[in-house]
Design a protein that fits this description.
The longest helix is centred in the N-terminal third of the chain and has 21 residues, at 71-91. It is built from 17 helices and 24 strands. The protein has 3 domains: 3-267, TIM Barrel (Alpha-Beta Barrel); 281-406, 2,3-Dihydroxybiphenyl 1,2-Dioxygenase, domain 1 (Roll), CATH 3.10.180; 423-595, 2,3-Dihydroxybiphenyl 1,2-Dioxygenase, domain 1 (Roll), CATH 3.10.180.10. The radius of gyration is 28 Å and the shape is elongated. The strands form 3 sheets. An 8-stranded parallel beta barrel has the order 1-2-3-4-5-6-7-8, surrounded by 7 helices. It has an 8-stranded mixed beta sheet with strand order 14-15-13-9-12-11-10-16, with helices on one face. The chain has an 8-stranded mixed beta sheet with strand order 18-19-20-17-21-24-23-22, sandwiched between helices. Helix content is 32%, strand content 25%. It starts with a strand and ends with a helix. By secondary structure, the protein is an alpha/beta fold. It binds 3,4-dihydroxybenzoic acid and magnesium ion (MG). Magnesium ion is lined by residues 134, 165, 191, 239. Catalyzes the conversion of 3-dehydroshikimate to protocatechuate (3,4-dihydroxybenzoate), a common intermediate of quinate and shikimate degradation pathways. Pathway: Aromatic compound metabolism; 3,4-dihydroxybenzoate biosynthesis. A divalent metal cation binds at residues 134, 165, 191, 239. This is 3-dehydroshikimate dehydratase.
Length: 598
């Protein structure tokens, strides 16, 4: 179906919004009145600009507080409407959204509302304009879509239809099933927004927390499916009032928005992009660094050996068990220190995974860097982390490892007991958290956990994990509370070990050190979990954190941060599937203290 977006959903001046909307690939726009009022472009200029960009103006909105008023007010409201019709004529827009009145003057009288809307539609029709009447969830007398429809039905005018808005319907737990009772041609417009489930005033919820479909907790696809079943064939149009998107860059938000619509079409059974080929494990994590010595030191202390060197690029392969870390000395890293640049995902069908990601607007990374390199399927995630879809060492597919030649191990000391990468934690830019979780979940085909709030000494982190069904791939997405140098963009690689006490001891013996954890933590651990005294002493001495649930236990500890990266060692027992979120506050505080030499 055609795809549109309301200009209120993006940041910046109208002209920049329009460019971002067209560049992302939308077909049309809803011009939000405030955006027109605050631009120096004339309506004719806006019309031309949209035409040049290939955008149709699908709706002009909103016209407020019109219906069910005393006669003298009606005359004024009709005059007000005529002036808006003038603007629409100049814009070349032929559909006006009228939202249900919130005015104290409006009367609780459906017959009057219908009669006055009929008069409005009559005047609109003479000017080639149609009216779409929408129930705001906080409308004074009309606050449900079925009520708005009853009034439209009663008015019975060809230039009057209804506008459905998924937020207004679902925020009040409305049943979208009744949509199929509305004749499709009387649904003049369909606005779509999701929202996280929150217990708050519905107007505040709508004006600040709407998000793109799939990023919240509302069944937006159910509304779309019902409207299409009713016969609606107009555009799917996003209308998202959101405090974060009002600040974030319009270009990236517009791409995020269009991706959510493509996924919504898939959810509603209206489109079938290439199916997901969900990853089953980590092939590698790639770190870039100008100065690789500290990184090599930590990897060596963790028991990794340098197992190969890329034949055409300045990249080393460090390996232990199935855990593989690529060290790239060619690119910058963060101020010379290491930064995570890429993740290799073990994927049943790499080409298929790349096709899906590309269809869902992920930028494709060039397939081949050097003339002899193995071709790779790779895309960029929303935070620009490169994702390589791999089949490592399988006879049916070229393997990225073919580009590495063997090197003798750097040292013969015993390996550290690390078997594989357990999870990778990515700190997302503050404005891209919802986009990232939608991307990892729906584009890659991972399952998302609940979103958690983790307390850092300088703010609250949101954190949400996505994982494959068997736990082979786990990615923890974190977001810092606000843009700031202090706590933005740390990434970490968690390594699974079968004997965390031994691995931690090895690290200390090799002089790499572990993040010190305050004594108070262990006193509390004892209080909470009644831990066996010998084990508690060992955890305390080693700086190992502990958590458990009904199914198993979790032990974890951290290396100091180098550049923007640190390593975590984790040991899981039984069916424990979490990440020790309980301990995140203590860990974050310990990292701040360590960083500042407290
Ligand atoms: O918040 C509002 O006022 C508002 C205006 C127009 C809409 O279409 C809407 O859904 C909400
Ligand atoms: Mg709306």
């Amino acid at each position: 179906m055609r795809k549109s977006i309301a200009t209120v959903s993006l940041s910046g001046p109208l002209s920049e919004k329009l460019t971002a909307i067209a560049t992302a690939g939308f077909d049309g726009v809803e011009i939000f009145e405030n955006d027109l009022l605050s631009t120096s472009l004339s309506p004719e200029d806006v019309r031309l600009r949209c035409a040049d960009l290939g955008l149709s103006i699908d709706l002009y909105q909103p016209f407020r507080d019109f219906e069910a008023v005393p006669a003298e007010l009606l005359a004024r409201n009709l005059r007000r409407a005529e002036r808006k019709f003038d603007v629409m004529e100049r814009l070349g827009a032929d559909l006006l959204l009228v939202c249900s009145s919130v005015a104290p003057e409006s009367l609780d009288d459906d017959a009057l509302a219908a009669e006055q809307l009929r008069q409005l539609a009559d005047r609109a029709q003479r000017r080639g304009i149609r009216i779409a009447y929408e129930a705001l969830a906080w409308g004074r007398h009309v606050d449900t879509y079925d009520h708005a429809w009853r009034i439209v039905e009663q008015a019975d005018h060809p230039a009057l239809g209804t506008c459905l808005d998924s937020f207004h319907i679902l925020s009040r737990a409305g049943d979208p099933g009744g949509i199929t009772d509305i004749p499709g041609e009387k649904i003049f417009f369909l606005q779509l927004a999701d929202a996280p489930l929150m217990a708050m005033d519905v107007l505040q919820w709508s004006r600040h927390y709407r998000c793109f479909p799939g990023q919240g907790g509302l069944d937006v696809a159910g509304v779309v499916a019902a409207a299409v079943k009713a016969g609606y064939r107009g555009p799917l149009s996003l209308e998202v009032f959101n405090d974060v998107f009002r600040q974030a860059g319009a270009a990236s938000t517009a791409v995020d928005a269009l991706r959510s619509l493509l996924l919504l079409e898939e959810s509603a059974g209206l489109a079938a992009p290439p199916a997901a080929a969900a990853p089953s494990g980590f092939a590698f994590a790639e770190l870039t660094a100008a100065d690789t010595e500290p990184l090599r030191g930590v990897l060596g202390a963790l028991g990794f050996s340098r197992a190969g060197r890329h034949t055409s690029k300045p990249v080393e392969l460090w390996q232990q068990g199935e855990a593989r870390i690529l060290v790239n000395t060619g690119a910058g890293g963060h101020r010379g220190g290491p930064a995570l640049a890429a993740i290799g995902l073990e994927t049943p069908d790499p080409a298929q995974a790349a096709r899906r990601a590309e269809a869902l607007l992920a930028p494709v990374v060039p397939r081949r860097r050097g003339p002899k390199d193995t071709p790779l399927d790779a895309v960029a995630a929303p935070d620009a982390t490169q994702l390589f879809f791999c089949r490592t060492g399988k006879p049916d597919h070229p393997s990225w490892t073919d580009d590495f030649t063997g090197l003798p191990p750097t040292h013969a000391e015993p390996a550290g007991g690390v078997s594989r990468i357990d999870h990778i934690a990515l700190t997302q830019p503050w404005h891209q958290f919802d986009e990232a979780s939608l991307f990892y979940r729906r584009v890659l085909g991972l399952q998302a956990d609940e979103s958690l709030d983790l307390a850092d000494p300088y703010g609250l982190f949101r954190s949400r994990a996505v994982a494959g069904p068997d736990g082979g791939v786990r990615i923890a997405l974190n977001v810092a509370p606000a843009p700031g140098e202090e706590n933005v963009r740390f990434q970490h690689i968690a390594l699974a070990t079968d004997d965390i006490v031994a691995t931690a001891r090895l690290l200390r013996e090799r002089g790499a050190g572990l993040l010190p954890i305050p004594d108070n933590y262990y006193d509390d651990l004892d209080a909470r979990h009644d831990i066996e005294p010998h084990l508690l002493r060992t955890l305390r001495e080693s700086g190992i954190l502990y958590d458990r649930d009904e199914t198993g236990e979790f032990f974890h500890c951290y290396t100091p941060t180098i550049g923007r990266v640190f390593f975590e060692l984790v040991q899981r027992t039984g069916g424990y599937r979490g990440y020790g979120a309980q301990n995140a506050g203590v860990r974050l505080a310990a990292q701040h203290a360590y960083q500042h030499g407290v």
